[in-house]
Amino acid sequence: MRRVLTEFDARRLLAGAPVVLVTTRWHGVANVMPVAWNMPLSHDPPLVGIAIHPSRHTYDMLRLSQEFALNVPSRRLMNHVQYLGTVSGRDVQKIEVAKLPTFKAQRVDAPLLEGCLAHVECSVEEVLHLGDHYLFVGKVLAAQAEREAFEEAWLLEDDDYKPLHYLGGELYAVLGERRQAHLRTSEEGSAELEETAEERERREEEEAHRQEQQEREER
Ligand SMILES: Cc1cc2nc3c(=O)[nH]c(=O)nc-3n(C[C@H](O)[C@H](O)[C@H](O)COP(=O)(O)O)c2cc1C
Questions:
Q1: N or C: which end of the chain has fewer CB within 10 A?
Q2: For the segment 137-163, what is each residue's pLDDT rounded down to a tens digit?
Q3: Which of 21, 35, 127 to mutate for ligand 1's pocket (most ligand atoms within 8 Å of CB)?
Q4: Which residues have CB under 6 Å of ligand 1?
């Protein structure tokens, strides 16, 4: 049975990108805020987007410094993420209070956070006003990741080396196992969907179930 949702629930259905800690620095003062609404936008040039509400201190920091870094935390920093998303850099020096060690970025002034799995350094390329948020489009200037965590894709071998995903409220998740998809290649060289025995069995069972339900409703 399907559940009817409100249009505001759609954002949570789409939750699932790794949450990132956005660091900024302006006039020697650094700040950090978690951002769940982030996404890749272009392959070449490499562009990424972060949706930032104008009430955030980070919004001002981005406008002023025109650059930022994304730091991908693991579950080890989950409570830090929640804290950093609850207080504002306007009131608290969050990096110091949370005792987060930092290190120097390669291309931006914003600090990088130790203990995170990956780091992406960006310059602000464009800012788009969308609804009640602003999409800051960042051009990727440098990127690095922990070897145990990432090699071409997230490895997902060890829970402490998996990115953290935000589900909303105070809920987080980590991904389970990595799975490999398989397609068959036709004689002409195009990709074809190959149904496994298990998938066929499930499809036939579901078809029979749907048919049964329809017949019951017609009676
Ligand atoms: C896990 C998590 C994800 C969040 N994602 C976003 C987001 O994508 N965009 C946004 O504007 N605020 C987001 N927030 C809220 C900000 O992080 C929060 O308002 C923060 O305190 C702002 O900090 P600042 O004022 O120091 O910039 C998120 C909060 C949490 C806990």
A1: N
A2: 999 999 999 999 999 999 999 999 999
A3: 35
A4: 19, 31, 33-37, 51-53, 56-58, 81-82, 85-90, 166
Q: 79 and 162 share a domain?
A: yes
Report residue 111 CA to chain centroid gap: 20
pLDDT in tens, 187-214: 999 999 988 888 899 999 999 999 998 9
* DSSP single-letter state for residue 152: S
- 188 & 166 share domain: no
Q: From the alpha carbon of 61, which atom of ligand 1 is closest?
A: 27
Same domain, residue pair 160 and 211: no
Are residue 103 and residue 138 in the same domain, yes or no? yes
Q: Are 148 and 141 in contact (CB under 8 A)?
A: no
Q: Which domain holds residue 209?
A: 184-218
Cis (ω within 30 of 0) for the bond into 18? no
* Residue 32 Cα to ligand 1 middle (Å): 9
Based on the structure, what is the number of domains in the chain?
2
The rounded distance, in Å, linking the Cα atoms of 51 and 120 is 16
Q: What is the pLDDT of residues 61-103, one digit of tens each?
A: 999 999 999 999 999 999 999 999 999 999 999 999 999 999 9
